[in-house]
Every structure is written in structure tokens, then in C-alpha cells.
TrEMBL record:
<feature type="domain" description="Helicase ATP-binding">
    <location>
        <begin position="104"/>
        <end position="290"/>
    </location>
</feature>
<protein>
    <submittedName>
        <fullName>DEAD/DEAH box helicase</fullName>
    </submittedName>
</protein>
<keyword id="KW-0378">Hydrolase</keyword>
<dbReference type="InterPro" id="IPR001650">
    <property type="entry name" value="Helicase_C-like"/>
</dbReference>
<dbReference type="GO" id="GO:0004386">
    <property type="term" value="F:helicase activity"/>
</dbReference>
<keyword id="KW-0067">ATP-binding</keyword>
<feature type="domain" description="Helicase C-terminal">
    <location>
        <begin position="331"/>
        <end position="483"/>
    </location>
</feature>
<dbReference type="InterPro" id="IPR014001">
    <property type="entry name" value="Helicase_ATP-bd"/>
</dbReference>
<dbReference type="InterPro" id="IPR022307">
    <property type="entry name" value="Helicase_put_actinobac"/>
</dbReference>
<dbReference type="InterPro" id="IPR055227">
    <property type="entry name" value="HRQ1_WHD"/>
</dbReference>
<dbReference type="InterPro" id="IPR027417">
    <property type="entry name" value="P-loop_NTPase"/>
</dbReference>
<dbReference type="Pfam" id="PF00271">
    <property type="entry name" value="Helicase_C"/>
</dbReference>
<keyword id="KW-0347">Helicase</keyword>
<dbReference type="Pfam" id="PF00270">
    <property type="entry name" value="DEAD"/>
</dbReference>
<keyword id="KW-0547">Nucleotide-binding</keyword>
<dbReference type="Pfam" id="PF09369">
    <property type="entry name" value="MZB"/>
</dbReference>
<dbReference type="InterPro" id="IPR011545">
    <property type="entry name" value="DEAD/DEAH_box_helicase_dom"/>
</dbReference>
Amino acid sequence: MAFNHLPAGVHDALSALSVTPVTHSMPMASDPLPPDAGTRPSPGMILDRLTRGATRAARITHTEHLPPRTGSHADWPARIRPEVIGAIRSAGIDRPWAHQARTSEHALRGESVVVATGTASGKSLAYLAPVLSTLLDGSEAPNGRGTTALYLAPTKALAADQRRAVRALAAPLGTAVRPAVYDGDTPVEEREWVRQYGNYVLTNPDMLHRGILPAHPRWSSFLRALRYVVIDECHTYRGVFGSHVAQVIRRLRRVCARYGSAPVFLLASATAAEPARAATLLTGLDVAEITEDTSPRGELVFALWEPPLTELHGEQGAPVRRTATAETADLLTDLTVQDVRTVAFVRSRRGAELIALIAQERLAEVDRSLPSRVAAYRGGYLPEERRALERALHSGELLGLAATTALELGVDVSGLDAVVIAGYPGTRASLWQQAGRAGRSGQGALAVLVARDDPLDTYLVHHPEALFDQPVESTVLDPDNPYVLAPHLCAAAAELPLTEADFALFGPAAAGLLPQLETAGLLRRRATAWHWTRRERAADLTDIRGQGGSPVQIVEAGTGRLLGTVDAGAAHTTVHDGAVHLHQGRTYLVQHLDLEDDVALVEEANPPYSTTARDTTAVSVLETDTEIPWGDARLCFGSVEVTNQVVSFLRRKLISGEVLGETKLDLPPRTLRTRAVWWTVTEDQLDAARVNPEQLGGALHAAEHASIGMLPLFATCDRWDIGGVSVPLHPDTLLPTVFVYDGHPGGAGFAERAFHTAADWLTATRDAIASCECDAGCPSCIQSPKCGNGNDPLHKRGAIRLLTELLRGAVAP
């Protein structure tokens, strides 16, 4: 097979993986079609075709079969307008599922409610029925503009998709329902129409924070008539982002009260633990919950897939598994050849681009018409690129898509047969959300989780009970985080002067922060209110997605063409000088990162490698909130300051990941004040664990890596949301210490969750290391893809003995 269109070096890298040749186990496009070609193959049949051959079959570590489920109907509440029921019936839905009817009842009674049921269970209709009915009532009001509703989505793609769905559903209602998207992509000339005439406005928290609330006088008629606020995919509002959104929603409620409205909040979530509690934290209101899913579901076959070991060796001579990227590209290729509509979810933007690129090249060898039916989809694309891809997927023009989580949420991709998940997405809730993208028309579906060479992924594919026998996680957010709350108090003061009456809305920490904001010159007290008196916009004090500043623009040096953007917080590691950047199947090299102007200049190139940044990190303890003895050891939780600096980058062979070399970088250090959990051990414990001074650094380092890798099993985080440091003698504790900290200013709740589940978390960490089949440590147990020290030193057996000794004294916090 030729790889003529791949970047230079990919052909060699693929050829080097001779242990897993690219042999399509499924019939090629030129082969006679199987007898069932005119019907959808069952998920079991699709999986059988994927695993033909001994080498493929051996990669399945577990297969879970979820049987089909029948649905339970109910009647629409009597207060739903007959015209709305007629429109729903015209869309082919005769009666609602019971959970849809119950959700509508709460909404019509003026009670905020969260519906937390499975993917494709009809959550949209559960809130749309009462919203459309109320908008229809409002359109008949004799005076004024009538009733309005606001829809919040975490992504632009989801808002655009919902507008299509609402337009189609509400078409029989005429002009009574006027849905309109208002986001950063909305042309300036359309925005005034939306403000004046739109009565179902679809936007995102970012635009609400920066665009709508600061300009609330221009939205006064809309806000005065606001009856419902829909918060879709509310489980995504977690950590720092969720905490920011919680304060944005409090600001919205405050401005609405100024205009005399008190909207009801209707929230939709993937299956989550304690959804009412999370919704209450998010909105500040009492929220009822609907959790019983009464919709039917087709059969789901869920396979756990572990790529094979290769003959290559990585850092410190560790064995290297074939990458999840290469394996997913194979599966996407095979599924596309068989006309199986598939989305492959990928953890990184670069991974999505690379998988699509490899699949396109392989498909070209089968049928020249097939490469155009596979594409990548990720954040950072220009608006017109995103919209074109969404249309192509929706129409079926695209058969295969390699996508980041930008497409995980409720975008209607009905008709998918399979989902391939390249690496555990960080939470069980997200895993099931992604798996649920397939089978959305009620048919059977296949989901495949392809394990990365990572401690948590390896643990999960060999411990399926941790996925299939455990409930989904609780959502973690902290609206009282002072780093979150302070800029929103400033933004609120700019919208309407703050008074003591607002303290109850913004939480108990607000009163203590206001004097500090006065001292800093951000707010000024006049009589009984605090005012924003500065010339700049208060809303610009914070980026609610915690990205640490303005996005860095990626510009083609020769033409000045804008290719896309990257978050400011990721710029040092992704678009530093010499970094490889992928965009729409093309490869670029970063010529220069200009931190003053937030621009990365790139030129198109075909290097035979990818790049990975290396950094150094130091932690100092600012305050210990809680300390618990574990025998002679100590488990602590508190505030820390983290100093981080990107110092170099590695060049790695494509696909295989072999290191080709290292290049130094000169980038400024960055500091972060955040929250951390840490543990210490004594000399006596080291003696009991038989960890000598030569092994100590490697044992602590290995335990740190593995514990970071395992924490997403216990907290709603990704390993990239957290960081860690291990020190044989820390200057603040004067003992061997391991820190795990939140990677966001002020903390995100992940370290606190780790503290409260420390015994289970560290036990799973020890077990994951001990059960790995390698001798001295590998990416499946103690090596980390984000290690700034090149995974050196590491001592696997020392880490097992050290954690075992630590856990002897473990008690619950």
C-alpha cells in the first residue's frame, strides 16, 4: 500500500509497525456485497468483521452487550397547546415518553427541573414542548412582544443544530416561534434583528457573559418577557468552567429581576449522579430531577480494545504499544469501506487531524471516491469550516468523522452505526455520552473504546467492572472559588451597582471579597452600593473557560491567512517555536510564537515527526486546610503555588512515537495559585517499604504519575486538568512528598475530590501498577505523556511497595 499523500515519514513509520500490517479484515469496496447489504448490519456483525483474523481478535479484552429496552408512553400535560401537539405529531411523534411528559409538567408549573436521561432519549422535546406552547401563548398577547425563551449550549455547533431542529418542529406554528442564534459567528447586521424580534434565542455562556449581560439595556424587552432558560448538556459545566457559568447564570437572574422577570430553568443532562444537586449549584435555585429513562433503546455492543505491543522501545527502554491513533485510523478506514457510518472521538485536535489524514490515504487505495467521505472536526476551525462539516455529516455525505469532543454533545447525527473512542475520555458520563452518538434512531449500535498506552486506559480495559458496574460521576464545581467569583462581582457591578441585597445571590464569599476589590481599585463604594468605575469592560477580566487570556491566532506567514486559534493556556505547549501544527489535513511548522501580539506564525511543511513540549514544575505550600494522619504518614489538602516553565520539546516519529531528538526553548515561567492534595511518608516507612535512597526519587515519581492517571476514575476530570510534583525532600514538609494539584487558578474541585476518596484512589493506583505486565514500567502504568523530566527516574517496584506501606494506615477523611 502506498502512502503518497501522507506527510514525509508517515510511510516509514507505518511500515515499521510490521507486527500490525494494514490488512482490512472487512471486504473491500470492489468485493461482492454481502447478502445483508441492503439493510443495516447488526452491531455484533460489524464487530465480527472488524475482528477477523487472530491478531485483531486478540485485541478485544471485553465485550459488553446491553440489551434493547422498550419504551413507556404517557400523555402530554393538558396545558400544552393543541397546535404544539399537532406539530409534534407532524414530526412523527404520536405520544411522549413518560419522562418527557413529567419534565413538561414541572416546567408548566413554574418549577425548575433537570432531565438526566440517556443519549437520544428525547430530552430536547421534553423542554421544547412547554417552551413552544408558552411562546405560542405569548404571541397572542394583546400588547408587547410576548413571551421569550433563552437557550444556552456549551458549543456553537450544538446551538446551530438546535436551531435547525426548532425551525423544523415549529414550522406549522408560523411566526409565533422565531428561533435565532446569537453568538460570535452571528453577522453584525443580524444581531439587531435577533434583539428586537427573536423570541427563542440560542447562544452560549461565553456570549451571555461578554455580549448580552453587559449590554442588557439593549435586551430589556427580551429579558422583561423571559419565561424559560434552557441549559442543554449541563453536565459539561464542571470544574472551573462550570463555576464560571454558575456565576454568569446568577448575573442573568439578577438582571432579569431588574426587569421584573424570574425565568424557570430547564436543564438537560447526560446520565449523571445527583443531577438535581449539580443543577442547584449551577443555577442557585431548587431544581427537581427526572432520572428514569422511559425511552426505547436498541442493542448496544460495547467492545474494549487494547492495541498490541510493538517491537519498538520508548523512553528508558520501555515496550511501546501501537498507538490508539494508529489503531483508530485502521478501524475508521474499515468501517468506512463497509458503509458503516462512524464517528471516531479523539482526545486532541492533532489526533483528530492525523486519524482523518491516515484514513483518507488508506481509503484512496480502495476507492478514489472514499477519501472525500472522511474528515476531521475540531475546535479552532473557522466558522464556515465548522458549518460545512456539520451539514455534510447531517446529510450523510460524510461516512466517517474523526472528531474532538466538540461533536460529543447533542448535535443530531442520527443514523450512525458505530462510535470509536480513541482513549478513555476522562469520565464515565462522557464515555456513555460519546457511545450514545450511535444508534440514535433506535437501531442497534457498536461502540469501541481503544485504549491508549496509559495507566487508566490499561486498567479499564482489564477491569471492565470499573466502567460497566459503576455509576457515573457527580459533577464537581465550586461557584464560591474566589478566583471565579471576584471578576463576576466586578462584571455584575458594571451591569447594575451591587448592594448587600445581592450577597445572598452570589454566595457567602461575596461580602468578604468586596473590600479586597475596593482595595485593588476595581470597585468603588458610594453610599450603599459598589460601582465599577474603570474605563475597560469588566466582563473582560475573566475568560470563563479558564483559558488564561486571549486566544493565540495561527497565521500563515507567507500569505497572512488566518488558519485558526489555540487557547492562550495551551500556546506554550502547542504552538511554541518549532512545533508541528496540523490543520485540515495539512502540516505546518511554527516559525515564531509572538506572546506580545498573541500570534503564532507558521509555514506549510512535511516534517517526519510530531512534537511534544517538556516543562519543569515546582510547588510551594501556601496553606494547609486539612491534615489527616495515615499512621506515620500524612494526607493533606490546601492551597499551593505552582511555578511551571516549558523548557524544550521532543521530536517524535509519527505513529510509532520514537524520540528523534530534543530542542531547548526560551519561554517565560508561569505561576498558578491553586488547590492540591499531597501525602508525605517518614524514614521509618521507607525502611518498612524497602525503598532505599537511590530508589526513592523513582518510586515517588512513579506513584505520582500513576495517581494522576487514575484520578479521572474518581473525579470528573481529565488527566490534563491536573498536575503533579514529587520531591524526595520537600522544603515545606521536610519529608518525601507527592503533590497532585488542580491545573486551574483557585482550584477546580478535583484535588478536593481526590482528598476525600484518597484510600480508594491510591489503592486503585497501586493495583494498576502491580497488574501491568511490564518489568520496569511503561506508558501503561507509570510513564506519563506529559512528564517534563523524560520519565526519569522511575522505579515501578519501589512505587508498589511505597504505596502499599502508605495505605496500611489509610483512614477515610
